[in-house]
Design a protein that fits this description.
40% of the residues lie in helices and 19% in strands. By secondary structure, it is of the alpha/beta class. The strands form 4 sheets. It has a 7-stranded mixed β-sheet with strand order 10-11-9-12-13-14-15, with helices on both faces. A 4-stranded parallel β-sheet has the order 2-1-3-4, sandwiched between helices. A 4-stranded parallel β-sheet has the order 6-5-7-8, with helices on one face. Helix 6 links the parallel strand 5 (106-108) and strand 6.
């Protein structure tokens, strides 16, 4: 029996999906649901939830527009990754239309530090770099945050055009094209590739057919290949110097694990990173209730490669994947030690560090702050959730020394936002800053902050 999927998207996606819907007709029924506003996205989710098996959203803004208003989601949600727009094809098309095209007069609102600027800085010389987004896309905790983010992205487009700095806007925010057309703003809406969308849908159909969506929380594992200890970088993740190609050994190791134990794994590859979608109960089985690192040892033993591994749980697969990504980034910073983040943002780990069984809970976010957190928040002029996350980071690192890029990766915000946050904390007496020279004395010193406040 075919499953029914509601594809909730903004208007520009509709004509682009016609071929995809036809090609998937034998595998699933797709209901195309168009949202003109974030408010409408939430309303449409509630309207269609009783009629479908799951939802696929065309972008993370629509996802947050729904999840920030609803505690428990009636049906599973998947999200097409906003970073999957094929920017290379867009740039090639612009060059073919005009061999003298000036990329420095383009604004790309979905390219920023946290996604490596989509590789654009490696594609073009610095003088030809387009304008990148400097809008903070992290910390969307309320519907008001979602609306503010959309307004900030829109405002940046208009500011650049009115200042005469850009001639073309590239966007993945589907709520903007209608306003751009009304106001005469030249733009292109950038889609993910059709192959990516087809594979995305087919993986979800496969997951449902294998009964992956039974009762219980969703789980995810993110595995990032790292250079070998004998490598030139001394064991740092390969991703630190650019993405690596998918590892055949890692792919075979995952397949072997599934064959032996019968886990319901759906594996997606994002560059050289493996993203596994499964169930929370499988994560618990893999780690002996999050008490050992046997999964990491098995994967690395069969793949013959060091890895950074993060596990995450969520009320839906998108939340589980986000948590696993955060845990994997922490693993990269901590030399491959494995961590897990629960659906309530509880961080556990390292799991079985260096073969020693045991679970160490290093932090749990509190929705309702303690009196001490309220006091700190008022004194430092920083919200209590950010303060809690900084405290957790210092416990994970077993050090009060934090740099802005480390904090940006931990919070999921831009480097600019992390710098602003640390400067505010320092200005209000919660940290002291110092510069540290790099090994060998080459290059600019790195700035660190010593966190002095305590919960």
């Amino acid at each position: 029996m075919k499953i029914t999927i509601a594809f909730l998207a903004s208007a520009p996606f509709h004509p682009y999906m016609d071929d995809v819907v036809r090609e998937l007709a034998n595998y699933c029924d797709i209901i195309f649901v168009t949202a003109a506003t974030n408010d409408e996205a939430d309303r449409l989710y509630g309207e269609y939830a009783p009629r479908v098996d799951c939802f696929i959203f065309s972008g993370k803004i629509l996802y947050y527009a729904v999840t920030t208003r609803r505690g428990d989601l009636e049906k599973p949600i998947y999200v097409l990754d906003d970073q999957k727009g094929d920017i290379k094809d867009v740039f090639l098309a612009l060059l073919l239309a005009d061999r003298n095209f000036d990329f420095s007069r383009v604004f790309v609102d979905f390219a920023f530090g946290l996604n490596g600027y989509l590789g654009i800085k490696e594609m073009l010389p610095e003088k030809e770099w387009p304008h990148f987004s400097d809008v903070d896309e992290g910390g969307l905790e309320t519907f008001a945050d979602v609306e503010k983010l959309c307004d900030a992205i829109k405002r940046r487009h208009y500011e650049l055009h009115r200042a005469g700095l850009v001639d073309l806007s590239l966007t993945r925010l589907g709520l903007l094209p209608k306003e751009f057309e009304r106001d005469g703003i030249p733009y292109r809406y950038v889609y993910p590739s059709k192959d990516y969308i087809l594979n995305f849908f087919l993986q979800i159909v496969s997951a449902f057919n294998s009964n992956q969506h039974d009762a219980g929380l969703a789980g995810s594992i993110v595995i990032i290949p790292m250079e070998s200890a004998e490598g030139a970088d001394g064991g740092r993740p390969a991703a630190a110097g650019g993405p690596v190609r998918p590892s055949a050994g890692l792919d075979a190791a995952l397949a072997s694990l599934v064959r032996r134990h019968g886990y319901d794994f759906t594996v997606q590859w994002d560059g050289g990173t493996a993203v596994v979608l499964t169930k929370l109960k499988d994560l618990e089985a893999l780690t002996g209730g999050f008490a050992n690192g046997s999964f990491k040892e098995a994967i690395e033993g069969e793949a013959g490669q060091r890895t950074a591994i993060g596990m995450g749980a969520g009320r839906n697969f998108y939340q589980a994947k986000l948590n696993a990504l955060k845990a994997a980034e922490l693993s990269r910073y901590r030399s491959g030690e494995m961590y897990y983040i629960s659906e309530t943002d509880r961080l556990v780990g390292p799991l079985g560090a260096r073969g020693t069984p045991g679970v160490v809970a290093v932090g749990e976010l509190r929705v309702s702050p303690t009196e001490r957190l309220v006091e700190l928040s008022r004194g430092l002029h920083v919200d209590h959730l950010s303060l809690q996350k900084i405290i957790i980071l210092t416990k994970m690192r077993q050090s009060t020394r934090v740099s802005a890029d480390e904090l940006a990766a931990h919070l999921g915000v831009t480097l600019r936002s992390a710098n602003r946050l640390l400067n505010k904390i320092e200005a209000n007496g919660g940290a002291t800053s110092f510069d540290e020279n790099l090994v060998g004395g080459r290059g600019r010193p790195r700035k660190y902050y010593d966190i002095t406040f305590k919960e």
